[in-house]
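worker-3 :: picked Branched-chain-amino-acid aminotransferase
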Amino acid sequence: MAKADASKLDWNNLGFEYMDLPYRYTAHWKDGAWQDGGLTENSTLPLNEAAVVLHYGQGAFEGMKAYRTPDNKIQLFRPDRNAARLKNSAERLLMPVFPEDKFVDAVKQVVKANADFVPPYGTGGTLYIRPLLIGSGATIGVHAAPEYTFTVFAMPVGSYFKGGMTPVNFTTSQYDRAAHKGTGQSKVGGNYAASLLPGENAHKDGFADCVYLDPVNHKKIEEVGSANFFGITKDNVFATPKSPSILPSITKYSLLWLAEHRLGLGTEEGDVYIDQLDRFKEAGACGTAAVISPIGGLEHNGNLHVFYSETEVGPVTKKLYDELTGIQFGTVEAPEGWVQVVE
Ligand SMILES: *Cc1c(COP(=O)(O)O)cnc(C)c1O
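worker-3 :: C-alpha cells ->
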C-alpha cells in the first residue's frame, strides 16, 4: 500500500478511511516485560498463524484524536482517560497493561512524527489515533498469549458532518451487543465482530446504525452502535443510560460534566426505557468518531419516534457540541487537565 502524501490531501474533503502514514509506534512484551518501544515506518505487523488475537480475539483498542488549534498548535483531548480505559480492557482480557504514562508519551510521539497530517484548523478535520494491544504470541490452546504487541497508528479524518450537523435516524436491534457480565465495558474487537451483522441490517433498512437494548429484557436503551446515547428531558436534564455492558465513553462523561458545569442542566445516569421516549425533547449519540450525532428519530417495533426534528439539530445538543468541540480545538477554555498540547 502506498504511503500517504500530506501535500496531496484535500483537507476539506477527508473521509474516515485508513491511510498509511510515515510513522507509528510499536512495543513488544516478552518474557514478562515490555521491551523498548519506538517509532517505525513499517505499517505491517509480523504475526504467527497461531497468534492468540487471530483465533480467540485477545485484543483491545482505543480511539482518540489530535486537534489543530487556531494558533497552529496540536492538542490531545483527555489522553489519560484512553490510557486508563486500555488498562481496564487489558486486565479483562488477561493482557499485560501498557503503562499509562508511556501510552500518552507514545501517542504524542506518533502525533509529532506525523504532524504534517494533522488537518489545518477550520477544516473540521482531525488526526484520528488508533492505539491497539494484541496477544501476538502463538499458542493453540485457549490461554493468554505468551507475547504481546502494542501499536499506535494514526490517519487524518474529515469532519463527521459535511455542511453542518444533521440529525440521523436509528432503529433498535433484536440482537445484543454484549452481555451484562461479558465484555461490554471493554473496548475489545469481539464486541465489534458481533455488531457487524446488526449494523448491516440497520443500514439496509435505511438507518444510520442500530440502538442496542439491554440484554436481559430488551426494555432499556444501552448504546448506539459505537457511540453512547443521551437524551435531554423536557425539564432540562442530560440523561444517559447506566448499565454494566455499556462502553464508558469519554465523550459522554465529558458531556455529563459540561452539561452540569457549563450549561446548568441537571444530569442523570440511569434507566432509559424504550417505551418512555416522550420524556425527551432532544437526543444524540456521542463518541470520539461521531462527536455528537443528533438523533432525529428512533424506530422501535415499526414506529418511528421523532425527538426534536428529523432535519434540524436541537438547541441544547448544538450548545453541547459547540462547547465540546470548542475545548477540543482550543477556542473554549478547557476544564483543568482536559487538554494536553503536543507541540
Ligand atoms: C469507543 C466507543 C464509544 C465511544 O467512546 P469515546 O471514548 O467517547 O470515544 C462508545 N461505544 C463503544 C461501543 C465504543 O467502542
